[in-house]
C-alpha cells in the first residue's frame, strides 16, 4: 500500500542517444547520459470512481491520473499522444517545462498548436532541462477538470550535488473533483445568467478521495458514518516511513479551483523546493499550495514517538466554504514495521487555518526565498536584473460583456483564435488575430480597486497579444480588485508558460511606482506560478530569452474559461526563423496555407 517511488513504469523505452556534439556537451556538464524517453499514450474517457462515486474521467493508457513520467535533467521526452476521445480534440501541456527551442510542444490549443483530432496521433518532443517537481495536464477547454493530468518528475543528473539529502521520496498530485460533468460545467459558466460550478465535492490525492464521508470513519470499523467501499480507485494513500529518516514529499496541485493547505499531524515540514527551484529551507506546520504550484518538503521522522499512524490532511481554503463544505482529503503516514496500516490515528485529523486567514498565507508566501550562497552555485540561480525595460500592469476583475459574466484583464476578456498564434506569427498571417496590442496599464489612474467595476467601461472580447522583443526585462504587476459582487475579491494563481520568473514581492491595495522600493531583488524565488491576494498586487520579472508564444493566465480552470489570461508573443522575429513542427499547425489558416502550397 505504501508507494515509495518505484522505478518508472511509464518509461516504455530508454533509447541510447546519438553522441552529437550537443549531447556530448550536456554529458560533460552533467556527467551523465542524457537519454531519450519514448512514450506512447492513448487518451480516452473511462468509468472511474475518484471519490468512490462512479463517474467518467479522462484516462491515459487506462489509468487515472495518467502515468507518472520520471526523467533526469537533460533527457529528451517524446510522447506520441493518440486521441481516442471520439468527438473532441485534445492537447497536453507540460507544466513548468520551459520548452526552449520547442515552443510548438507547449501543448496549448490555439496558442502553440492545433488540438489533436479524434483518432489522430501527435508527437510531443522536448528536453527537460531542470530537475524538479512538475506535472502535465490538458489545456483545451476545461479538460484538466475532467481529469486529464499526471506527474512529471525530473531528477538531478547528479544527485550528490543536490542541496539536501533524503532516504526516500513520495509524490502527491493534488486535484479537486465535481460530480457534474465538465461539458455541462462549461455551458453553465457561459450561460446567462452564469451558473457557477460551486465548490468541489472532493479533493483527490493521486486521484483518490472520498465523497460525503469522513475517512476518519473508514478507519473506525465500529462507525457507520460512511460506506467505505474498499474500491482500489479511491482507497486512501498510505505513506510508509521508518523512524529517524528523512523523506522528500513532492506535492503538486492541479486543482481546477481549490486553494489547498497541507499538513501532517504532529510533524513539521521543511520547505526546500518550489516549482522546480530550490528555496532557502524553512520549517512550517502547514503549507498553502495553489493550483499550478509545486513544492518539495522534507519530513524528518524523528519527531515524536516513532510509531503509530498520523493523518496527512489537505484542506480547502481561499474560498468561502459551501454547505456542506468540501471535506479535507486525508491520507495516512504509517511508521512501519511497528504499526499496522489498519490502526487508525489515535486523534482527530489536524485543523487547517480558517479559509480566509490571508495573513497566515501571506506570511508563508513572503517566507519563500531563493537558495543563494555557496550551495546554490551549482543550480545557476541568478538574481534578477535590477531594472525593468517595460512594466505591464494587469488589472484582474470581472465585467459583463453583453449579459455574460467574464473575467477581464485591463478590460479585455481573452478569446482564442482558430489558427494557433505560433503558426500565424511564424508565417506572418496577420488576419489570424487582432494585431492591435492590449494595453500595458488599466484605463484610469483613478480606478477604485475596492469597488465593483463600473459596468459602462466597455469590456470587450479580444485575442490580441503582447509582443515582447527579445532580451528585454519585463515586469508584470498583477493588480487584484473587487469583482462584480460588492466586497468580494478572490485569490488567483497566475501561471506563465515558457518561463520561470522572479517573484519580486506582494503588497496590499493599489500598486504605485513608489512600491518598487519593496521589491526583493536580492534573493527573490524563481517560480512559474504565483498568487495574487484579494485587493493586493504581486510583482514579477522575467527576461525574454525564450522565443515562442506563451500563455500567462489564472490557473483556476473556470476563470481561464471565462477569459482570465493574456498572451505573450516573445521575440517575434526569432519565431519567424525557428524550425517548428508543422504537424502542430495543420488547422485554421496555417492548415489552409499548407494545403495550398501542396497543391501548387
Ligand atoms: O468566476 C467566478 O464566478 C463566481 C461569481 O463571480 C459569479 O457567480 C465566482 O465566485 C467565481 O470565482
UniProtKB/TrEMBL annotation:
GO terms for cellular component: extracellular region; plasmodesma. It is found in: Secreted. Residues 43-157, 170-336, 457-572 form the Plastocyanin-like domain. InterPro entries: Cu-oxidase-like_N, Cu-oxidase_2nd, Cu-oxidase_C, Cu-oxidase_fam, Cu_oxidase_CS, Cu_oxidase_Cu_BS, Cupredoxin, CuRO_3_AAO. The keyword Secreted applies. Keywords: Copper, Disulfide bond, Glycoprotein, Metal-binding, Oxidoreductase, Repeat, Secreted. It is an enzyme of class 1 (oxidoreductase). CDD domains: CuRO_3_AAO (cd13893). Transmembrane segments: none annotated. GO terms for molecular function: copper ion binding; L-ascorbate oxidase activity. It comes from the Eukaryota. PROSITE patterns: MULTICOPPER_OXIDASE1, MULTICOPPER_OXIDASE2. Its cofactor is Cu cation. Its main location: secreted. Its EC number is 1.10.3.3. Belongs to the multicopper oxidase family. Dimer. This is L-ascorbate oxidase.
Amino acid at each position: 500500500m505504501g508507494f515509495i517511488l518505484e522505478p518508472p513504469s511509464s518509461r516504455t523505452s530508454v533509447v541510447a542517444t546519438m553522441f552529437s556534439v550537443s549531447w556530448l556537451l550536456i554529458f560533460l556538464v552533467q556527467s551523465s547520459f542524457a537519454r531519450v524517453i519514448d512514450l506512447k499514450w492513448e487518451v480516452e474517457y473511462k468509468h472511474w470512481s475518484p471519490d468512490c462515486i462512479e463517474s467518467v474521467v479522462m484516462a491515459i493508457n487506462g489509468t487515472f491520473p495518467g502515468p507518472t513520467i520520471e526523467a533526469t535533467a537533460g533527457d529528451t521526452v517524446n510522447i506520441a499522444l493518440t486521441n481516442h476521445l471520439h468527438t473532441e480534440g485534445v492537447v497536453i501541456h507540460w507544466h513548468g517545462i520551459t520548452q526552449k527551442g520547442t515552443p510548438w510542444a507547449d501543448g496549448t490549443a490555439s496558442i502553440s498548436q492545433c488540438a489533436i483530432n479524434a483518432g489522430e496521433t501527435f508527437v510531443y518532443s522536448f528536453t527537460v532541462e531542470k530537475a524538479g517537481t512538475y506535472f502535465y495536464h490538458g489545456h483545451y477547454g476545461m479538460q484538466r477538470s475532467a481529469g486529464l493530468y499526471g506527474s512529471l518528475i525530473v531528477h538531478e543528473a547528479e544527485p550528490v550535488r543536490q542541496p539536501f539529502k533524503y532516504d526516500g521520496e513520495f509524490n502527491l498530485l493534488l486535484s479537486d473533483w465535481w460530480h457534474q460533468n465538465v461539458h455541462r460545467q462549461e455551458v453553465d459558466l457561459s450561460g446567462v445568467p452564469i451558473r457557477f460550478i460551486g465548490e468541489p465535492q472532493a479533493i483527490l490525492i493521486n486521484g483518490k478521495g472520498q465523497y460525503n464521508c469522513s475517512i476518519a470513519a473508514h478507519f473506525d470499523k465500529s462507525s457507520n458514518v460512511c460506506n467505505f467501499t474498499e474500491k482500489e480507485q479511491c482507497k486512501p494513500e498510505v505513506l510508509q516511513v521508518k523512524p529517524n529518516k528523512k523523506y522528500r514529499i513532492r506535492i503538486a496541485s492541479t486543482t481546477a479551483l481549490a486553494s489547498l493547505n497541507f499538513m501532517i499531524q504532529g510533524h513539521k515540514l521543511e520547505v526546500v523546493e518550489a516549482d522546480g527551484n530550490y528555496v532557502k529551507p524553512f520549517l512550517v506546520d502547514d503549507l498553502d499550495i495553489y493550483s499550478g504550484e509545486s513544492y518539495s518538503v522534507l519530513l524528518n521522522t524523528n519527531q515524536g514517538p516513532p510509531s503509530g499512524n498520523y493523518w496527512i490532511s489537505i484542506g480547502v481554503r481561499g474560498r468561502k466554504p459551501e454547505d456542506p463544505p468540501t471535506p479535507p482529503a486525508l491520507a495516512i503516514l504509517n511508521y512501519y514495521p511497528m504499526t499496522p496500516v489498519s490502526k487508525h490515528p489515535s486523534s482527530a485529523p489536524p485543523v487547517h487555518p480558517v479559509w480566509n486567514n490571508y495573513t497566515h498565507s501571506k506570511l508563508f508566501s513572503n517566507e519563500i526565498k531563493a537558495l543563494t550562497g555557496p550551495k546554490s552555485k551549482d543550480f545557476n540561480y541568478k538574481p534578477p536584473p535590477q531594472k525593468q525595460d517595460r512594466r505591464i500592469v494587469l488589472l484582474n476583475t470581472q465585467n459583463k460583456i453583453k449579459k455574460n459574466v467574464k473575467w477581464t484583464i485591463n478590460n479585455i476578456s481573452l478569446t482564442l483564435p482558430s489558427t494557433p498564434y505560433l503558426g500565424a506569427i511564424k508565417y506572418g498571417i496577420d488576419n489570424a488575430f487582432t494585431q492591435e496590442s492590449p494595453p500595458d496599464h488599466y484605463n484610469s489612474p483613478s480606478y477604485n480597486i475596492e469597488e465593483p467595476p463600473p459596468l459602462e467601461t466597455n469590456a470587450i472580447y479580444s485575442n490580441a497579444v503582447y509582443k515582447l522583443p527579445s532580451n528585454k526585462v519585463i515586469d508584470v504587476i498583477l493588480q487584484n480588485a473587487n469583482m462584480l459582487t460588492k466586497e468580494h475579491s478572490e485569490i488567483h494563481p497566475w501561471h506563465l508558460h515558457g518561463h520561470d520568473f522572479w517573484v519580486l514581492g506582494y503588497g496590499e491595495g493599489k500598486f504605485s511606482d513608489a512600491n518598487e522600493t519593496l521589491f526583493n531583488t536580492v534573493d527573490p524565488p524563481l517560480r512559474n506560478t504565483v498568487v495574487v491576494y484579494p485587493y493586493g498586487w504581486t510583482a514579477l520579472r522575467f527576461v525574454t530569452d525564450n522565443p515562442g508564444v506563451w500563455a500567462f493566465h489564472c490557473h483556476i480552470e473556470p476563470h481561464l474559461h471565462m477569459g482570465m489570461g493574456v498572451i505573450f508573443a516573445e521575440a517575434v522575429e526569432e519565431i519567424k526563423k525557428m524550425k517548428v513542427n508543422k504537424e502542430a499547425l495543420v488547422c485554421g489558416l496555417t492548415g489552409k496555407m499548407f494545403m495550398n502550397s501542396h497543391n501548387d
